[in-house]
Each structure stands twice: as structure tokens, then as C-alpha cells.
Amino acid sequence: MLRVFVRAALRPRLMEPCRLLGPVTQIPERSIVHQDGLPKLPIPPLKQTFERYLAALEPLICDDEEMEHTREHVEEFLKGGVGERLQKSLERRARKTDNWLSEWWMQSAFLDCRMPVPVYTSPGVVLPRMHFQDRQGQMRFAAKLIAGVLEFKELIDTGTLPIEYLSGKPLCMDQYNQILSSCRIPGPKRDTVVNHAMGTTTPTHITVVHNFQFFVLDVYNSDGTPLTVDQLHMQLEKIWNSSLQTNKEPIGILTSQHRNTWGKAYNNLIKDKTNKESVRSIQKSIFTVCLDAPMPRVSDELYQSRVAAQMLHGGGARWNSGNRWFDKTIQFIVGEDGTCGLVYEHAPAEGPPIVYLIDYVVNYIQRTEMVRSPMVPLPMPLKLRFNITPEVKRDIESAKQNMNIMVHDLDVKVLMFSHYGKNVPKQHKLSPDAYVQMALQLAYFRMYNVCCSTYESASLRMFLYGRTDAIRATTVDSFNFVQAMEDPAKQNTEKVALLQKAVQKHKDLTYEAIHGQAIDRHLLGLRMLSIEELTSMPTIFMDCAYAVAQHFNLNTSQVGAKTDCVMCFGPMVPDGYGVCYNPMEEHINIAITAFNSCEETHAAKFSRAVEDALLDMRALLEDTAKTQQ
Q1: pTM of the model
Q2: Is 419 a residue of the active site?
Q3: Of residues 73, 233, 346, 522, which has the active-site annotation?
Q4: Alpha-carbon distance 578 to 396, whole Å?
Q5: How far apart are CA 492 and CA 332, in angstroms?
Q6: Which domains are delineated in the chain?
Q7: Cα–Cα dist 331/354, whole Å
Q8: Which pLDDT tens digit goes with each residue over 385-417?
Q9: d(CA 346, CA 603)
């Protein structure tokens, strides 16, 4: 029996690679056992949420009259009985379900979002560049990578994956069960996610795609043992040699379409029995490996940005965008030119499980050696066949055109900030995450002379089936700090004091968020209930201020990987930026995206502004420290 998640949704997806507070530790023990002991996600007090909502609006709403208007809406909601009634309904839902939010979150953030999955939903990850630049190196690396993932899968399957702890509290491990053997299925109006690992017969194959052609590669022997690196290498060589023909239609590019368009094309595609069987084989696979053709060479300065774009969308119809099945939860990408990374479909899981998987596999690749295996004959990997009717051909051509438009619209800049890392804020007793967030605030204020609604994801994994909530990084304190930085009349000591206050405020918001006391998911729950109960929409959700609060010009996330990698994702709004950062000890990797179709945003300019802000903040801290000695 398959586990199927069906959701309908309301609002655009929110990108969630995910922020945790403090170091996450792993303790080996059976991960299945502790799940039942996890607390349920709480529902914050109604009055508390709306006090914090008004506080979040203060730096965003400049007009006093508009702000007063919003306060009146809030008062009406709290005192008119509507808020209390919805709150009680929410509390009833919380008592009856394991997690009152998780269904709605999957529904509103992902499965009802009809924008294309690449760029708009799926994050990409760039791994450190490999030294190989030929087919042999590509095959060897891919074989080691597959073996590493299978070893990680064994930990999941046996329930021996070390449980993660945060501040001494165990975290929910359920998302690890969702990332392998799962796939998103398009629908005409809403999508589903199917997890094949939950059935009585679990998948034993992966899919490998090369030259737009898909293959089923069985990765286990008949006795249930995984193929060795050497055996995997041989099988990949067979796939390569069987896919040299390059005039095949890039069937995978269909998965890059607008979800309604792909839903219709999908139903048309699987009318054919052969096509249906081939699609099912891809959907049921444990994961996908994309063996990419080399991309055009660029300078070392532009290399990381080019690879980030390749991970997000494949580079366009001419390059590797057809060498994907974007609905697959995890696709590892290994280029012939040494580029490697992955792209993941976001609905089943947030970033931390993906990052932990990456760290594990990279460590495996570094420690493993090629072990010669007995030359037992292995069956030829099955090449998946597709019958391309004129209608399917038209759908592919349309998808090519739309993908190329999307590729040209995405502006990507990766800043490898080498001047310092989290060592500097730690020296000054400042939270590295909050410190980088203040640099983003300062950069944005310098470019636009206003502050904006800023989203940073926070993990709710302290709770059963917890996903995320939002840290609203723009605060009155952050606004005071960035204004002071631009005021030559302000003394450095005052600027440092304001930075310290802003950082502390951000730490407080982060703590509240990971303990289930942030505002955004509570507001979402109240809004969803008002729709489900067919009542009139409360005026607070139709207020202009609510629209401003939900328009996140800065969509940000920290990804604390041990691997020196870069995660990237698209902006949340047409005139916004997507910013993902990995603070290492002595440098910071920052990926910035924007849309070229917006004249006001520019990824490279914002990157320079972020770099300047980080340098100026260090100078401020060091100069002030010297004068106080």
C-alpha cells in the first residue's frame, strides 16, 4: 500500500531549507522508538500572536493612518468573537490530529502551488568541484555517490539513523523516511506525493538519465546486498554506451512545466501503456542520478554561479534541462566536467535531512576506495521506452520554450565571501546567523532606502511531524541598526549597541519560532479554518498590511552543512531575492537569486552590497573594540 499525500492549497510556496538554533547533535539509537514521545505542535495564544504581528508590521508600514487601520482590524478580530471561535476550532483540530499544521502546510506551500517546480520550488545544492574532466571520472564519482546513498538508506530502513538533538531535545526524524523512493505526481489542479518506501515491496532500483534517456538500474543483488562501487561503475558504463544516441526527445523536460500544463500533458503521456510503465519506473525509483553533458566553460569567478543555475534548472533545453525528472524528490547531478550537486523537490521534506544526507555521502566518497568485485555477470540496465506521439512532441516543444524563458529570467550570483566566517561574530559574542541576517538587512536598506518583509525558515522538528515556521528578520531593532549605519552623526559605540540589540532580538525570535511560538503558521491556520468553515474571510486577512507582511522581498535561509557546499533557490516574489547562506568557520558561501524581468532587482549588485555590509560590520566591531581597550 502506497502512502499518498493529497493536499489542496491556498498560497504560494515558501522556500524552506531551514534554520535551527544552535548546534544539532546526532546520537546513535533507534530513530523509530523516540517518535511517539515527541510533543505535539502547540497553538500559540491568540493575543500573543497578534501583538507580535503588529510588532512585525511596525518597520514595514510607514503610514501611521494605515497602521492604525490595521490595529482596528486586529481589535475587531480579537474582541468581536471571530478570533476566539477560530482559535477554539484550531485547538479542537490540534487535539484530534498528530500535527494540526502539517497537512495544511503541505497543501498551501507546495502541492497547490501551480508554478513550475524548478526555480520556483526546488532548491539546488552545489557540491565542491571535483577534479575529473572526463567520462571515466564522472562514472567513478557517480558510482561512489550511489553506494554512499545506499549506505545512508540502510540506516533509514533499519531505524538506526542517529537521532538528532537540539538543546538537549530530540528532533522528529520522519522527514528522513520521505526523501527516498518518493515522487511528486502532477494533477490538473493539485498534486500528490507518493512514497513507495512505505509499501510491502520496496523499490530496489534507481533511475539514471544520460543524453535525455532514462534507465532502470537495479542496485541490489538477488541476495539483497547492495552492488559494490565496482559493480555500479560497470553498470554505469553500460548505460553510457547505450545512450550515445543524442537525437532522443528530452521527455524529462515536461516535468519543468507549469503544474496545470504538466498535469494535462502527463495524463496525455500515460495514455500509452509503454509510456505509463516507463513513468512509473521513474516514480518508483529510490532516487535519480543525472549524468550531465559538460556545460560551456566560464571564468573561475563565474563558475559557482553557473553551476548553481545548472543545479536549479539544468541550463536550458540545449543543455541539461531535459536530463531531469523534476518531480523526483532527489536527483543527484554529476557532470562530465566535474560539476556535481543535486536538486530536490521540496514537498516531502525541508533542507536539514537533505544536508545531513549530503554530509554523509561526501564523507563516504572521501573515505571509500574502489573494491574489486568478482566479475559476476550483471543484467543490462533496462532502457525506458517512450512513444512520442505528435501531441507529446508538441508538449515537449512547448516545455523547451518555457524552460528557456525561465533560464533567461533567473539571475544567479554566488558570493564566496572569503574575508572571514562565523569566527568573527563569535569572537564578538554575536550569533553568526543573526549577524548575517543583519548584513542582509543593511545591504537591502543601502540599495533601496527602505526595509522589507524578510522570511527566514525555522525548524519545528522539536514537535511530531514538525516542518517549519518563519523568523521575521526585519524588526524595529534591525531597522534602527541599519539607519544608524547610514548616519554619520552616530558614534560607533552606539552603532555596535544597536547591532547587539538587533542580534539579540533575532535570537529571541528564532527561539520563539523553533518552540512553536512564531506567528506565520498560526495565522495560516486561522485563515485556513475560516475558509474550511465557509465563513466570511476576516478583515485582517484582506487588509493591505497583511499583503505587505506576506510579500517577502527577502526569502532567506541558513544551511549549516559541514560540507563546503552552496544551496540556492529562487525568489519568493517577482521583485524579491532568494538568499541562502552556509557560514563556515573562516568563510561564508552565499547564493543570491533574482528575476531579470524585474528592473529593480539585480543579484550581482545585491551580492556586492552584502559583501560591503559584512566588511563594514567587521570594521565597526574591530574599530570599536580597539577604542575601548
Answers
A1: 0.92
A2: no
A3: 346
A4: 29
A5: 48
A6: 41-96+418-627 (3.30.559.10), 114-409 (3.30.559.70)
A7: 11
A8: 999 999 999 999 999 999 999 999 999 999 999
A9: 23
